[in-house]
Task: structure prediction
Amino acid sequence: MSMPDFSAKRLLTSLLCMAMLGAGWNSVAQDRPAPGLGQAISEAQLDDFDLVAPPGGSGFPEGSGTAAQGRSLFNQRCAACHGSEGQGTSGNTVLVGGSMQSEGTPLRTVGSYWPHASTLFDYIRRAMPADAPKSLDNSEVYQLTAYLLYLNGIIGEQETLDRAALLSVTMPNADGFIDRSQLH
Ligand code: HEC
Result:
């Protein structure tokens, strides 16, 4: 028997086992009254968790902003930890500069390392500012994303960043990754 057949058979067997276990679990659960714990999550609450905005372009909200608008917001909400020019206040808070082509160990920043500009929007909206995550509205997140792209020399100061503009940005290190998902 060839290896692929063997692993396919194993996969089928484990799927069958899982299906049988699943069926058993369901019938046990049906015989018992619900424990009455917790409460259903509301759509509004779900919006706070459903923040995935991947490079493929789904999940981006309305809104827009420029780097010029983002500057003062960055100074108010971000500079204490990241420095007013994104130069950082510690090793892991540097947001600007670096080059993946440097001779020594490269400085990996949003500008030098991240392959997709969309990740910046996704990350800021979900996690920053670190002392008050999810406290920014969507246009503020577009403004701050624009400001960080501007500080990294990727877009202009007056360029309006919205969903379409963000998705069309090509990051300096976009080709610096190898897709190994298809290798066997
Ligand atoms: C209280 C301190 C603090 C504040 C305020 C703060 N950050 Fe951060 N930020 C951090 C820390 C610490 C990290 C590194 C987290 C890690 O490595 O897991 C980080 C990481 C980041 C990163 C990812 C950097 C990378 O290369 O992985 C971005 C982008 C970012 N912050 C943007 C912002 C923006 C925009 C604001 C303002 C809205 C902000 N931060 C406010 C502390 C802060």
Remarks:
- The pocket of heme C is lined by residues 77-78, 80-82, 92-93, 95, 109-110, 120, 123-124, 128-131, 144 (CB under 6 Å).
